[in-house]
Spore coat protein
Amino acid sequence: MSGPAHPARVGFRCDAGVKSGVGHLVRCVALAEELCARGVGVVFLGEVCGSAWARAQLTERGLPLVPAPREPARLAALACELRLDAVVLDSYDLPAETGAVLRDARFAVLALMDGDPLGQEADLYLDQNLGAERRPFPLPARRLAGARYALLRDSVRGRTRAAPGNGAPPNVLCFFGGTDSGGVAPAWARALNATGRPFRGTVVSPSPFEAGGPITVIPPTDRLPELMAAADLVVTAAGSAIWELLHLGVPTALTWVADNQRIGYDELVGRGAAAGLGRVPSEPAATGTLARLLADPAAREELGRRGSGLVDGRGRERVADALLALC
């Protein structure tokens, strides 16, 4: 495909909300930042509902959001109206024929996936999950696979981790995406308190609750990268934020909320790059693992050391190169 006579324009088809979470939006924003820095026109196509924080990720960067029809043919018509050259698909809920219809309409298509392309046809696929490069991929199109292609936001790429505290109670950060779609933050706050170990905790939750103990509950915030970099331990799910934590080298204890997160959970825990808590906060094994990490700075730092070399922060540059080569 020959390059466009005008500056390239790329549309991102993704949604964010209380039920679907904000992980798809966050990784698309990271790639959008890279494209904008190269002079590419960017527009988001979809819906952001129930999360002021998620909507702010677009408005604060000047990224327009246009409501998008679900029907593939109408989406292709909208892409034509917006004079797009390429469309990025990042959703588990789109009709399986969406990519094929867009390609038939002469748009280059990049499909983001987490193990399974869900039937989407694309010119280029991206699976940024750790170890994805070792998993079979039967489709003929090119796939960018593995943490080498992890998409990180500017606010993470330009940050370094603070030095761990010397003898003070560990600073623990606990969050589960921008919406806590599984509603698990209160249960993990209780698990931390149940360890009986000294710590200072911050739990990010869109719904206020009384955590008790040394825990402060705050709403979703743009300060999250700063809080991650200052943490001695992060308790979170194996979603899109894990690549940011690996890049920063922050010791992390993982659970999973959505089934698609199990791939990253198993890979990271299996490599010893994160501690595994299982899925149920009330299990004695989860409380025991947390208690051990809170009491053992060396064990925490070993997790951070093993994870820190896995994500170099340049993944979005590689993805942008491959995408723009299609335009």
Q: What stands out?
A: The chain has twelve helices and 15 strands. The chain has a mean pLDDT of 94.
